[in-house]
Amino acid sequence: MSVADYSQLPIFYHDKTAKLSEGVSVYHDMLFWVDIFKAEIHTLDNIDKVEGHRMFKITPETYDGEYPFTKFNCKESVGVVFPIDKTSAMFGSRFGIGKIDLNTGKWKYLVTYDQCKDLTYDRFSRLRSNDGNVSPCGKFILMGLMNSFEFQVTDEGCILLYDIEKNALTMFYDHIKIPNSIHWDGKNNDIVYITDSLNFVIWKYNHKTQEKQLLIDFINNGSNKGFASPEPDGSIVDYHTNVIYVSVWSTSKVQAYDLETGNLLQQFKIPQARASCCCIYKEDIIVTTANLNIEHPTNQADPIGGALYRIPNGRIHPTGDKPNHDDSKVVPVLN
């Protein structure tokens, strides 16, 4: 499979202090993304005009009320953001799922992961949000948890199901090192697609029967030879064409696959090695990246790490049809 070479693509947007840009999504003409390591939510008010950038810090100081986890003496993180509208969003944070007011920058936890009876408090204290998704009906969120930055990565990571109306958490999928993007099937809500980054695969998982089927193997499918750690990271499903676009960490690539067969359809090479997440907007693919030295206090060694790129006309239409539709992420339904 040939690779469409966008290695000279100019930067679409770059916060020069960025470390680990991730969790990118579209709400009409507005762009949302996060910096996991710096615990920030970013928005761009107009994608086409590339204007109106705002940044919101998720810290105890910006918490609306008394911050409930001061005893842990550790910093917050933000794994993924779920736009509600242009003035508010939900997001996966260090200890639970929060909601932010984009007018004031104040935020609050809606639910914390210690409320899940399947997690011991000791285990809960070591985990953070990584990635997740909203159900097609908007009433549920699947949230992947992994060990926080200060801990070794182990398989005590998991995926929790959040029932928004009941404000309740249950275990959905247990024992996974790095759960990345999660997607519901477009036709069968019992089926989800789970990105298992450190096993280099995406699983097709039937939650009702608990059957797990290999969909994509990023090492053994032959497309990532020569890369030591081609981890599937953030992704987006185009349900109109049944194509999944996957950012493949350390490879400088976004790969497009048929969601039904797992067959590789196209590859796109971008300027940065650490492709971290992607979304679709109109006919383009917007890609986030990470710095090569995330934990270093400055970005001198990698001055463009964490930048966003916009691949023009990257959207694939296997049938040739180009429907006109809104690419907004499913909006959570709050009471």
Automatic annotation (TrEMBL):
Q: Where is the composition biased (Basic and acidic residues)?
A: 318-329
Looking at the record, the residues that make up the SMP-30/Gluconolactonase/LRE-like region domain are 21-290
- What's an example of a GO molecular-function annotation for this chain? gluconolactonase activity
Which parts of this chain are annotated as the region Disordered? 313-335
The domain of life is Eukaryota
Which protein family is named in the record? Belongs to the SMP-30/CGR1 family.
Mind telling me what this protein is named? SMP-30/Gluconolactonase/LRE-like region domain-containing protein
Query: Lineage in the entry?
Result: Eukaryota, Fungi, Dikarya, Ascomycota, Saccharomycotina
